[in-house]
Amino acid sequence: MTAPMPPPGAPLPAFARALADILVALSGARALPKGQQLHGHLLKAGHLPATASTHTLFGHHLITLYARCALPDLSHRAFLDLPSRPSPAAWSSLISSFSQNGLPASAFDAFRRMLAAGVPATDRNIPSAAKAIAAAKTSSRPTLAPHALHGLAAKTPFAGDVFVGSAVIDMYAKCGHLADARRLFDEMPERNVVSWSALICGYADAGMHPEALGIFRLALEEAVVVNDFTVSSIIRVCAAATLFELGAQVHARAIKTWLDVSPFVGSSLVSLYSKCGLVECAYRVFSEVPEKNLGIWNAVLIASAQHGHTSAAFERFMEMQSAGFQPNHITFLCLLTACSHAGFVDEGKRYFTLMKEYGIEPQSEHYAAMVDLLGRVGRIKEAFDLIDSMPMEPPESVWGALLMACRMYKDADTAAIAAQRLFQTGSRSSGAHMLLSSTYAAAGRHADAALARKAMRDAGIQKETGLSWLEAAGKVHTFVSNCRRHQRSEEIYRVLEKVSEKMEAAGYVADTSAVVKDVDGDEKKATVRYHSERLAIGLGLLIVPEGVPIRVMKNLRVCDDCHNAIKYLTKCTGRVVVLRDNRRFHIFEDGVCSCGDFW
Question: How far apart, in Å, are the Cα atoms of 47 and each of 35, 72, 470?
């Protein structure tokens, strides 16, 4: 016989309290089958659906149970079983369920319905609404939504609450309103680690590396106990800017505070060491992280791909599957990149097909990787046919990959078609114009090359400046081609001239085929001799100790001549040069490059 429920306002009897406690425990353990069994018992016993005269605690806990088990639709159904006027706590749980399960539009809609029902905003539902706004796509997010929510929060008794303030900062940062995020951060009477982390991560995601580093230093000065999310964000900054020495210092701090065991910190460290050319260190960090997540598996896969360790990438993928991890779209992008860097067409096609077996539809970035793979091995017509078969409109990245292949194989006619289609996407990339121009030049069509450059000027598009940089002794040295602004420029040019003499004696001949201007041979040689990466290497010869690799980063693809020249340079000097361009890593040693001249 079912025990009767108490009248409204009466305390919950012991048996009902016990059932509620069990439901809370099952929710915390995410024990879905047992939770559903208890849900069924409550329905049969008449405790659900809740009415105005019965206690609503069970319904509230069921919303949370299904939310934690990633079943927001069932959370919503449990919410609908509540009385006609759900409590503020029930509304908060529903909004949180939608928000934490990737349904930002539903979360924000529930928040608005709550306000329309006369239920006030609280310190529980404002953070969930902020998370929903931050997660919404820009196209579907009301323009003034972030500021409207901040204004609403400011009118509540929770305006000075640290959790509410931190959530609003995170929302502003993820929506790109960094000035508003910083203003609120500076005005907060109290901050917590979430406040600091949100601002650091916002600056990091926006590429505002100096600002992110500045906030991190300020946090350390104020003795803020940072968490793994904060450390992961700042390591990502160091990785993006290839600040190896600073990144290593943050790594040391993470070790001292036991944060290095976090897979989030681990994945950022893998990326840091990989992008700084220390792939073996990246592999070691990966192996030492005790509990891995999909993010760190993807990080080690892309590290293997960028360094040309294709077989290692394939082996890691099998290990990942054996460990019980399901690949996602990023995993397959890493694998396709590895195939592209090695020219493994059959393997690339196999992984591209395998995506659908995992229920993953190839996106534009996967098609771009396949076009890059086919183009690198000269199968330009097949790459063009693949583009025509795409279920979506090919974006700039896809046509750019085809254009790069045309440049490699001097296919000026297809390059002209690819460039035209690329420009139709609305792209204002200077790289596309320069690729078309250099393709014409390589094919000996200098008049067409000049017209391509003129079209770029007429469109008001400026050529992207090629930059190379080298970090040494805690300072980053940046160069552009034929630059003489560095304080040691005279020494740099002298050492390069001496090395050039040895290189030419060893058989080096400058490749000037990509020079777009129709000028004489000597002027063409002068054009390529002092590209930015060579100047950075020249400084490295002066200041990087013998036995230590010279590590140089470049924002554009290294040209054919510089690639060949650096091989000769390492053979003539005995130095090792690690060069990262915008395509992959190149490790030059004793006249050989790790890419096998395939990049």
Answer: 15, 22, 69
